[in-house]
Structures are given as C-alpha cells and as structure tokens.
Specification:
By secondary structure, the chain is of the alpha/beta class. It contains 5 helices and 14 strands. Bound molecules: acetamide. Acetamide binds next to loops.
Amino acid sequence: MKVAAVQFCPKFKDVETNFNFLFQKSKEIDSELICFPELALSGYFFLSKEELRPFAIDFDSTIIKEIQNVSTSTGKIILFGFPEREGDRFYNSCAILFPDNKYSTKYRKTHLFYKERFIFEVGNTGFFVVEYPEKDIRLGIMICYDWRFPEAARTLALKGADLITCPSNLVTKIWHNVMPARAIENKVFLLVANRIGSETNGGETLHFNGKSGIWDYNGNLMVTASDESENTLIAEIIPQETRNKNIDQFNNIFLDRRPKYYII
Ligand code: ACM
C-alpha cells in the first residue's frame, strides 16, 4: 500500500487557498493514503476564539464534503487537520476520509500544545483505530504534541493500529529522536506530515520545521523531507506485517507486557 505525507506551508487565515491546495494534491498524488499537516486548512497560530471563529468549520461542512468526494471518486484515504467548530466550541481536529464514507470520521487532538489551550477544547474522541476492510488497513491517528505521550501511540497500537498517522505543526526538533522508538516499541508504521514556514501573531513568531517522515516498524526512516521545502513523501508499506508482534521465537512484545507492574 502506498502512503503519502504532504509537507507544505498552509497560508494563515486563507482557507480558500489551503482548500484548493488540499483538493488539487488529493487528486494528483498517486498514493492510496494521503496525510496533510495539522490545521492545514487554516494555519496554526490563532490567539483567541474570536480570531479563529471565521475560519473554523463544522465536520459536516461543504469543505469536508468536497474532499470526501475526492476520496470517494479516487479511492484514496485522505487526512487533513482543520479547526473544527461544534456549536460554541472549537477542536483541533483531523478529518479522516475513506472512499466508503460510512467509515469517515474525525479525531480531536487530545493533548493541547502551548497557546492552543486558549482556543480549543481538549479532544474528547480519544484514541481509536479505524479498520478499513477494502484496503485491509487498521489506521490510528494522533496529532502533533500527542507524540510526547507514549501512551498515545501505545493505545493506538494496543487497539490494533498497523499505521499511526501524525498530522503535525512541530516547532521543536527533538521529535525526530522519538518517532522511531514509537514505531519500534509498538511494531507499527509511523507517518508524520509536518508543515514548514513560520507564522507571527501578537509579536511572537513560530517556526515550523518540516522534516516529515515515514518510519517502518523497525524504526527505520523510509523517507524524509528537508526542513524548509514543500515535498510529498511516498512509501510502500505492508500493513499486515505489523500484526504479528513476535520479535523472535520466544518473545512477543505485547504478550510479554506486565501491566500489573506498570501501575503507580
Ligand atoms: C504542536 O502540537 N502543534 C506542537
């Protein structure tokens, strides 16, 4: 199965331009799964709910439906970050769109980073895996700062994920040290679609550092991008290879767990 991570620079507060980019790239890229960064539709650095409000959308909005139509007509799984509005609340969400739209859903970021707490509610979807029979893939999702919590990837893996996708707007560089460990300890493929560029608001600038990557379940970097240029990474994965958690004739990394000793 071919999977793609799209690294680009979303235009802050320009939903139309970003939507056109997502729409075109989703049609063009020759891959069965395409993942765009966190908040790809709007840009990142909002400082208040009032500032975000005009750019936030409901999950059943036309914009989501249009990308859903691309997924259905091309047979591709498409993920992208967007600011979700539900009534008066906002979530930092990822749309997860499957060709058969009865599987399509959203994930709401569980762990909020930095000033996100002034805008978004903490996510309430929890970590879940979507099993998509047509492609025999079990897909898990976490967003950006969720990476800091090994429980996120662990939960997804214990729930059966073959591939963990992580749409991101990463501002540090240390995450590159950790992603291979998440892949190894869970024996899963891991895909990070990070953004590039910078945004300034309220006199503060955030730099987003690219270097998107796809790791195999032994923690090997299959493909990566530079820290500043637009890029589409594509890797070929065999999701079924992650399901047997044996690592030799005696050890199975899930059956060998001793959860009663992990309680504090
Ligand atoms: C992040 O969670 N955007 C670093």
